[in-house]
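Sequence only, no structure available. Ideas?
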Amino acid sequence: MDSKNKIDPSKINKPIQLLGAWLVGLIVVNGSFLAAAISLDELSWARGLLIIAAVVNVPIFLFAIFLLQTKFRPEMQEDSYYHDYLLSKSGNPKSKLKIPSIVSEADQEPEVINDTGVDWKPYKILINPHLADYLRIKNNLNKLEIPVTGEFGQYLSADLAAPAIMFGRGFKQKNIHLLLKALSGTTVQYVTYGADEDEVDQYNDTILIGPITKQYKSNGIPLSDFVEAVESGILDESQFYSDIIITHNDGYDE
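Reply:
I predicted one. C-alpha cells follow.
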C-alpha cells in the first residue's frame, strides 16, 4: 500500500476521524479480498467466497457507520460539543454549573450510597506516589474497598504532581461518590476531567490521582464544591461529568 494512504493510529484523536478510518478500512479490506480473488484459479471455491465477502462487507460497514452517525451521534462529538449535549438533556444552561442547584434542592430525596458491593472491575485507578499524603490516600481507598490498580509518574519530578483527581469518562454514581469521599480531607483538593490527548477514549474508565498538569486550578473544580452533594447522595454521573467538562473547556467560575 502507498505510504500516503496508511493510517497512523496516533493521529486519530477525534471521533469524526474514526469514521474516515472506517471508510479507508473498508477500501483496504475489500481491495485485499478482490486482489486475492483475482490471483486464485477461476474454479477455486475460495475465489467466489472472497468476492461474496467483499460484496457483503459494503452494506455491513455502511450500516455500522450509519449507526454511529445516528444512534450514537452524541458520543461521536468532540468533548466540547459532547458536554453541551449532556447539558441539553438536563435542561440547564451552558454557563451554569449544576453543583449549586443540586445542593439547594431541599425537596430532593437523598440517596443512600452503599460503601460495599460496588463494582470496580472495569476501572483503572492509578496514583502518583509523589503526593504528600500518598500512604493516607491509599489507606482511605482501602477502607472503602477501592482497589488501586497501580502507580504512574514515579520517574517524573514530584513538582509535577497536581493535588487533584482526574476522572476519565465511564464512572457510575456510586464509584464517583466513593472516590470523592475517600479523598475528602486529603491534600487532593481539585477534581479535573481526563480529556483525550493522544488517542480516542484515552482516559475512559481511568482515574489518575495526582495527574501531571499545571492547569488543575483554572480547569478543575475544588473538591469541596462537591462535598455536600456527595454527602447528600444527590450528585449523579451526568451532572458530575457535565460540570467537570464545562470547567475543563471554559474554566472554573465561582
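The radius of gyration is 23 Å.
Hope that gets you unstuck.
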